[in-house]
Amino acid sequence: MMEYIFSLEFIYLIASITYILGLKMLGHPETARKGNLIAAAGMTLAILGTIFLYQGEVPMFIYSLIGIAIIIGTIIGWVIAKKVAMTKMPELVSLFNGMGGASAALIGLIEFHHYVGDTISIVTILAGIIIGSISFSGSMIAWGKLNGTITKPIRLPKYNILNNIIFIILIAFSAFMAYSGTDSQLYLYILFFGALAYGILFVVPIGGADMPVVISLLNSFTGLAAALGGFLYGNMVMLTGGILVGSAGTILTFAMCDAMNRSLFNVIFGGFGDTDTADNEGSSGKIQGTIKKATVSDVAILMNYSQRIIFVPGYGLAVAQAQHAIHELEQLLINKGIEVKYAIHPVAGRMPGHMNVLLAETNVDYDKLAEMEDVNPEFKNTDVVFVVGANDVVNPAAHNDSSSPIYGMPILDVENAKQIIINKRSMKPGYAGIENELFYNQKTSMLFGDAKTVIQALITELKGM
Amino acid sequence: MTELIDFISNNLQIIYIVILMIFVGVEVIGHVPAVLHTPLMSGANAIHGVVIIGAIIVMLSADPENILALALGFVAVLLGTLNVVGGFVVTDRMLEMFKKKK
Q1: Which end of chain A has fewer CB within 10 Å, C or N?
Q2: pLDDT band at A428 (very low <50, low <70, confident <90, very high)
Q3: Residue A208 predicted with pLDDT over 80
Q4: Which of A364, A332, A353, A344 lies closest to B101 in space, CA to CA?
């Protein structure tokens, strides 16, 4: 019995359970952190078990190589993960996802010639190479887009048809490789580079606003690639972990699309913002009226005599690094007896839940962060809504303008509040590139300026009152 | 057709696991509040780092003479480790912030 407890199968069973348990616990704020640690412990166990319980003769220097690779990877991974600013979180997830994809593709490249002749294994290996490579190169492009290295969606002429043709060729070519029983390394590398190119072409035309969906999709791709590796080796922990992430990642992808009222098809083939820009030029002419500008002291006075204030933070707040300032403003207003809340749109920031992470970093009370469904009915009883660096998530066009690309997207109904203060750097449209009629609303005052500077000025004014 | 039947009967256990795991994945994510989507995605991202197990197996079973396989395997283990360690640490960092309420 003791022997079985220390066997690799048993360790893999334990690890698989920790993944399920970990993911489950990640779904509740109170248990989330523990869940992550449990899954991490399971992973460590599985890795150590694989190394030390391996049956077979392995030269010492190979053990050393594995050890060195793990140590280097641990140090680099740890340092990057600890050092990176919270605003950079989405691109970091993308980066790590790409690493996993690359690892899966490399496994396939090495194992290919060992399995020549065994059609099912070859199909598994080739599928792993294709999916892993797409996940790697796609994630790198997504990473570049999110950190601003790649700014514009790049579209080759007829890119959708071109991409589909390349994809079909990849599938046909790998089918040929599997059934011809070839052991050609040249073919193998052609497939590998073809898949890498497809990953780039797949992500490059997609606009930056849709990157979280893309990352989530590629995340489930890497899961699938890991599962294929598990199938190849009959390795249960890779199989369970991979499938779990593949299926959970797919659901998460759909949940994100839902929150933005975009279909996955639309994200991938849609070309958001391209044809839309043409429409916008037309519709921007439709929005008429004047905007009202407010000064810092106007807003300070308004806030000082309010009873209920709701903050609507957007990515602009994060870019300006104004999370700490807004928390200070919130504390100051609460000390004056004013009720303050944050209304968080599900896709505020660059990823669902991103804004919550950013605000939690500054110690904002978790209970003060209200989700969209809960906070929307409250706007009509709110004296002042303070929109900081958010735009598309408060754009009423999502309700009224069926020609708008964001039509149907659930938004925060800030226009129901008594007064709306919008802080922006300029009149530039938001991430989706659409005009916002809210700015021309009679109840709206625009407070132009950098979020951090403006909020700090507000704090100074309010302190003097 | 017979090949397909053969495939199914030979891999029945794996097919069961795949089907059940798909449903577990769906079920586990189904009831998660939007606020936790980012940490959850990050956590899932770390879990698919399990691919490192495959990379380790490649290294352990590699022919010691085959320098190319060893080099690629080395890179695969390194990248897999980055995925695992980076993924879990970053998720922990995100979640650490949720906890800090007085």
Answers
A1: N
A2: low
A3: no
A4: A364
d(CA A261, CA A255): 10
The length of chain A, given as a count of residues: 465
Q: Which residue has the tokens 């439709």?
A: A286
Pairwise CB contact (< 8 Å): A90 & B24: no
Beta carbons of A100 and B47 less than 8 Å apart: no
Residue pLDDT, tens place only, A341-394: 999 887 777 676 778 778 887 888 878 888 888 888 999 899 999 999 888 788
Q: Residue B37: its pLDDT value, please? A: 79
Quote the pLDDT of residue A279.
37
| A462 and A300 Cβ atoms separated by less than 8 Å | yes
Tell me the CA distances in angstroms from B16 to A224, A232, A241, A442, one per residue in order.
16, 16, 15, 61
Q: Indicate if the pLDDT at residue A38 is higher than 90.
A: yes
Give the Cα separation of A226 and B87 in Å (integer). Answer: 15
A354, two tokens = 């991103």
Domain boundary assignment for chain B: 1-31, 33-102
DSSP E strands, B1-102: none
A105: its two tokens: 């593709």
Q: Among candidates A32, A355, A23, A432, which has minimal Cα distance to A220?
A: A23
Sign of CA dihedral A330, A413, A435, A277: positive
Asked if A58 has any chain B CB less than 8 Å from its own CB, the reply is: yes
**3 state SS of A132:** helix
Q: What number does CATH give the domain A291-463? A: 3.40.50.1220
A230-250 b/e (C-beta count within 10 Å ≥ 16 → b): bbbbebbbbbbbbbbbbbbbb
Structural element, H or E, at residue A412 = none
Cβ within 8 Å of residue A316, ≥6 positions away = A388, A389, A390, A391, A423, A424, A425, A451
Q: Is the pLDDT of residue A281 over 70?
A: no
- The C-alpha of B9 sits at a distance from chain A's nearest C-alpha, in angstroms, of 14
**CA–CA distance, B28 with B32 (Å, rounded to integer):** 8
In three-state secondary structure terms, A35 is: helix
Task: Tell me the pLDDT tens digit for each residue of A305-343.
Answer: 999 999 999 878 877 888 889 999 999 999 999 999 999
**Distance (Å) of CA A431 to CA A121, A134, A211, A348, A411:** 45, 26, 12, 11, 15
Please tell me the predicted confidence (pLDDT) of residue A272. Answer: 47
* pLDDT above 70 as % of chain A: 91
From chain B, pick out residues whose CB is under 8 angstroms from the CB of A102: 75-76, 79
Q: Which residues contact A176 (CB under 8 A, 6 or more apart)?
A: none
pLDDT at A274 over 50: no
Domains in chain A: boundaries: 90-272, 291-463
Yes or no, beta carbons of A106 and B79 under 8 Å apart:
yes
Closest chain B residue to A230 measured between Cα atoms? B54
The Cβ of residue A82 has, within 10 Å, a number of other Cβ atoms equal to 12
Q: Which residues does chain A have within 8 Å of residue B101's beta carbon, measured at their own beta carbons?
A: 363, 365-367
Mean per-residue pLDDT, B75-101: 87
Residues 6+ apart with CB under 8 A from A19: A39, A42, A240, A241, A244, B47, B50
Q: Do B33 and A371 touch (CB under 8 A)?
A: yes
